[in-house]
Write a structure and sequence with these properties.
By secondary structure, this protein is of the alpha+beta class. The protein is built from 2 helices and 6 strands.
């Protein structure tokens, strides 16, 4: 080979090394960019999930504020319901058939229906076991089964499963046991 051919081979080898170096650099840059892309995608997905959770939390808080406002209004209406029930219970028999009394009963039923549509439920009492979460004991009755509600003095209500007003009740105390006193001899 002549001297002229050798420099060409040297140039080809040098160009091959440069191309291989450029390809490796490009591959490394591609891997780095792929890693960045994955990190950006993961961050975006986290941000999107955080935003969705934020929206749900804001909606839930809004509903709780509405429920609390409804609870305050309903608590103010419950004494009216109690008064109507007491009025119907004490109504003389000759007045019960009058049309205006029937009109008041219709108004009372309409009020009850409105309360029910808003999630107000009456707490069951008579014959149920006493539960301090839902019942308030005003009196105890001797001779009745212990822990069982014997009578209801004031109705209790729940609003969407949460206690609105406890029921005021009379609870059985159980049979009193006679204690035999022994006198010292």
């Amino acid at each position: 080979m002549s001297e002229e051919e050798r420099p060409e081979e040297a140039n080809e080898v040098a160009e091959g090394e440069v191309l291989t170096g450029d390809i490796e650099t490009l591959r490394q840059a591609l891997v780095e960019e792929g890693t960045k892309t994955e990190r950006y995608l993961a961050n975006w997905q986290r941000a999107q999930a955080d935003f969705m959770n934020y929206k749900k939390r804001v909606e839930q808080e809004k509903n709780e504020v509405t429920d609390f406002a409804n609870a305050a209004l309903i608590l103010n209406l419950l004494p009216v319901v109690d008064d109507l029930e007491r009025a119907f219970a004490s109504l003389p028999s000759k007045l019960q058939t009058l049309s205006w009394v029937d009109g008041i009963r219709l108004i009372y039923r309409k009020l009850q229906a409105i309360l029910e549509t808003h999630g107000v439920v009456e707490i069951k009492t008579k014959g149920e076991n006493f539960d301090p979460k839902f019942h308030e004991a005003a009196m105890y009755e001797d001779g009745a089964e212990e822990g069982v509600i014997m009578d209801e003095l004031q109705k209790g209500y729940k609003l969407k499963g949460r206690l609105l007003r406890p029921a005021v009740v009379v609870v059985g105390k159980g049979k009193e046991e006679e204690q035999i006193k022994t006198e010292p001899s």
